[in-house]
Amino acid sequence: MNHRAETRSLVPAAFSSDRRQLLLFAAGGASAFLFSRSAGAQSTPEGGWSFTDDKGVTIELAEFPERLVIDVNAAAPLWDFGIKPVAVFGWNANENGDFGPAGGRVDPEGIDVVGDVSEPIKLEELVAADPDLIITIAWDPEDPTEYWSIDAEVLPQVQAVAPVLAMSVAASAGPATESFARLAVALGADLNTPALNEQQERFAAAQDELKALTAGKGDVRFLFIGVQNENIYVANPVDWGDLTFYRELGLNIIDPDAEPMTWWETLSYEHARKYPADVLMVSTRPAAVQGEDLHTIATFADHPAVLAGQVFGWNQDFILSHQGMAEAVEHISASLAASSVVNS
């Protein structure tokens, strides 16, 4: 597998450092729209719809957006808030129709797929879906050309079909979840239903539980990794919104030798013991080696965490809804509760 495909299957792509200003006017479909760089408050045109995304881009539509085409990573949290797309796309849409861990509770029945792992967004299928709005995520919201699952060279063509809105997954998962909630409300969600209130309360309770656990077990060291193509990818917590959030709740996460905005340190199998981790959290991306299979790799077979059974799954495509993050935090708490210091 070439490096480009490898980074797409397990890790975020290496984004360009070019911060050139992107100024686009486009029109298409039933609605006219305008993109502007703005850090200010939203304004709603009379009878229309407006939203400022996490890139600071204000999208204004003449009418409320009914037809949404959403990348799988953004569709999963919005689905939990009750927002359903007419079509999905993205690197985590598998060709067999499965959305994997990134898809959360999204039901593929009745939803068109206009891009998948082989080609994350397909222009002809996108046009046929007739979207009012396209939604994705951004790993680097400061880069005006970085939209997950939309390569820079096709971005202008995609934006000519419908405006593209990006939600950041770079920020700590706590506030990032509230940003998704804000978008869901703008798209018509009612967060005051009993079911959604229950999930908000569950999320708050999960945070309290993890704080209490880490207060007593702060010496247990976690390492978050992906294993693929005879490489170990060690996650850099400062680049991952979920890991940043867990650390804020007191979790002891090991820092690899990696610069910010590189996401990972890449190691060969021979360096499986480089970091004295007590717990290994292993990416559940479909293309990766799963945690239960680590014992089949010679250099992991005698790893103290593996021998102690302190290996757990990590959905690196964390789902930024109250329900999704409650489940994620509960999983971390359960992993910590079942673990102890085994590596020195």
Report what the structure shows.
This protein is α/β, with parallel strands linked by helices and 344 residues long. The protein folds into two domains: 3-191, Rossmann fold (3-Layer(aba) Sandwich); 195-337, Nitrogenase molybdenum iron protein domain (Rossmann fold), CATH 3.40.50. It has ten helices and 15 strands. The strands form three sheets. Strands 10, 11, 12, 13, 14 and 15 form a six-stranded mixed sheet that branches.
Gross morphology is globular
Q: Main beta sheet, described?
A: 6 strands, mixed
N-to-C order of helices and strands: HEEEEEHEEHEHEHHEEHEEEHHEH
Gyration radius over CA: 20 Å
Short précis:
With about 350 residues, this protein is α/β, with parallel strands linked by helices. The chain folds into two domains: about 190 residues, Nitrogenase molybdenum iron protein domain (Rossmann fold, 3-Layer(aba) Sandwich); about 140 residues, 3-Layer(aba) Sandwich (Rossmann fold), CATH 3.40.50.
Keywords:
single chain, 344 residues, alpha/beta, six-stranded mixed β-sheet, five-stranded parallel β-sheet, 15 strands, 29% helix, 20% strand, disordered N terminus
